[in-house]
């Protein structure tokens, strides 16, 4: 691995305080882009700062290309300026009195003039702003200024680039676009990078690997597909994508496990746990909006509580007569009114289950009235 982060802990208070980063481990191969995502205060920035050397890890080890940068056990702590790591922050602070080209060349004073100019030109071409070389930063848009900040960070050819919410001051449409553009620029320059965001679309657009953090812990590290379809924890399941949990029972059928849910049976599901994975097979099933199909021929009906137009589809929030809530992506030519009952059926590719959270209400046949 190019970057190795092994059981890294960062504490700001005393030994008793809850750590800002709690034993986080992950790795990045050379040229890979990693993204740390999670809600405010989960420890993303603290972990990034530890990699940069701006915070000292109180536990664990950080290494780049096999060389230890931090090791809490042996007391190694390399100063930030000795790590050859580039950084781009939200407030990218270009020098207002320098031209775009001079901003990019700022960290290259040690190079001979011709080499410096060639490097600046290469960076301008890389970020697509060669025509703006002589302009002042204030003559550029926010997105263009951010690209210059990126070019300035890449110019000294850092072996690792760290980016902390660099697009958060820009508007949403521009952000996703810039995330895709940034990915292309990093891939073209072969730069290994670690990016911090709380925005899923940005994370999906950028990351080869994404780490979801919650209360200082890195709950899962994987590609976007795995996080979405095989979330390791309830928190990851809730944080990534739309979905709900519904009580389910896994039972043994002739051909393998079957799953009973309030809105029908999942037959022959792939990657399904065996019934004895949970007490009496009772568990909570993750239902993504794309696991629920609108089908008026289905005997299971649900009432539309809310709907959100998303262009090619609606995101419907539905409630079954039994009280269960589910969500469904439905092609937008199926335009039903709020309050209407529609037919639904489950189509779950990946069965994702967790131990039952709260004891279920007694089933109808157990009640006296039943
Ligand atoms: N310099 C500091 N001194 C003390 N506590 C700090 C310091 N910096 C961060 N913290 C605390 O550490 C925890 C993690 O903060 P951190 O900034 O790493 O989270 P984050 O996920 O980057 O949040 P955000 O998305 O809001 O930037 C928080 O509880 C925060 O209050």
TrEMBL record:
Keywords: ATP-binding, Cell membrane, Ion transport, Iron, Iron transport, Membrane, Nucleotide-binding, Transport. GO terms for molecular function: ABC-type ferric iron transporter activity; ATP binding; ATP hydrolysis activity. One of its GO terms (biological process) is quaternary ammonium group transport. PROSITE patterns: ABC_TRANSPORTER_1 (PS00211), ABC_TRANSPORTER_2 (PS50893). This is ABC transporter ATP-binding protein. GO terms for cellular component: ATP-binding cassette (ABC) transporter complex. Residues 3-240 form the ABC transporter domain. InterPro entries: AAA+_ATPase (IPR003593), ABC_SmlMolc_Importer (IPR050093), ABC_transporter-like_ATP-bd (IPR003439), ABC_transporter-like_CS (IPR017871), ABC_transpr_FbpC (IPR015853), Mo/tungstate-bd_C_term_dom (IPR008995), P-loop_NTPase (IPR027417), Transp-assoc_OB_typ2 (IPR013611).
């Amino acid at each position: 691995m190019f970057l190795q982060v092994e059981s890294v802990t960062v504490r700001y208070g005393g030994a008793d305080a809850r750590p800002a980063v709690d034993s986080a481990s992950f790795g990045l191969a050379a040229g890979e882009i990693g993204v740390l995502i999670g809600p405010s205060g989960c420890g993303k920035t603290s972990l990034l700062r530890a990699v940069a050397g701006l915070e000292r890890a109180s536990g664990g080890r950080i290494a780049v290309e096999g060389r230890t940068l931090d090791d809490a056990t042996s007391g190694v702590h390399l100063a930030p300026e000795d790590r050859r790591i580039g950084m781009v922050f939200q407030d990218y602070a270009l020098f207002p009195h320098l031209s775009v080209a001079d901003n990019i060349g700022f960290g290259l004073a040690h190079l001979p003039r011709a080499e410096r100019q060639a490097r600046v030109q290469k960076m301008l071409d890389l970020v697509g702003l060669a025509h703006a070389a002589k302009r002042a930063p204030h003559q550029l848009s926010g997105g263009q200024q951010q690209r210059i900040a990126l070019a300035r960070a890449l110019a000294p050819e850092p072996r690792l680039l760290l980016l902390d919410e660099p697009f958060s001051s820009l508007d949403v449409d521009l952000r996703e676009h810039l995330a895709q553009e940034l990915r292309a620029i990093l891939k073209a320059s072969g730069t290994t990078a670690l990016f911090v965001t709380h925005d899923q679309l940005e994370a999906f657009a950028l990351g080869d690997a994404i780490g979801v953090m919650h209360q200082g812990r890195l709950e899962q590290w994987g590609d976007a597909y795995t996080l979405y379809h095989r979330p390791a924890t309830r928190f990851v399941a809730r944080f990534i994508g739309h979905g709900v949990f519904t009580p389910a029972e896994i039972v043994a059928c002739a051909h393998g496990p079957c799953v009973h849910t309030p809105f029908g049976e999942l037959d022959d599901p792939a990657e399904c746990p065996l019934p004895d994975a949970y007490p009496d097979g009772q568990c909570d099933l993750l239902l993504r909006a794309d696991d629920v199909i609108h089908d008026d021929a289905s005997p299971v009906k649900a009432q539309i509580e809310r709907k959100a137009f998303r262009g090619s589809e609606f995101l419907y929030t539905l409630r079954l007569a039994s009280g269960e809530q589910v969500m469904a992506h439905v092609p937008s030519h199926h335009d039903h009114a709020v309050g209407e009952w529609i037919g639904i059926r489950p189509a779950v590719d990946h069965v994702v289950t967790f131990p039952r959270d709260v004891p279920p209400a007694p089933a109808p046949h157990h009640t006296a009235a039943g």
